[in-house]
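Quick start: what a row looks like.
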Amino acid sequence: MIRFILNLLWLILGGGIVLALGYFVAAVICFVLIITIPFGVASLRLASYSLWPFGRTLVAKPGAGVPSGLANVLWVLLAGWWLALSHLLAGIALCVTIIGIPFGIANFKLVPAAFWPLGREVVEAP
């Protein structure tokens, strides 16, 4: 029940809808460019994760190999570093207040997802 309430507050106050829309727009652009479709799929995964982060976590896919690692290097150079930096700065800013600490932690959870998204999947936390 706590996770549900935190996710609801995240949607309303924490910027979850704005983050998800941003990742969704990035996914649409990646799908239009055809060659970047794997990045679009990763961006949709991030949109889903950023929309409802509490109670879920990111784990490595067992079948991901060298191609996803190489694609992640390209992702980091093009988009990952500034997305991760924005989540890091937002997390620090949110942790300044007591009420914002859970939302800051959620932003910190999104840093590795934004930095290195390919070859990972979102699963329910234990």
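That is the whole record. The chain has one domain: 2-124. Strands lie at 56-60, 120-124.
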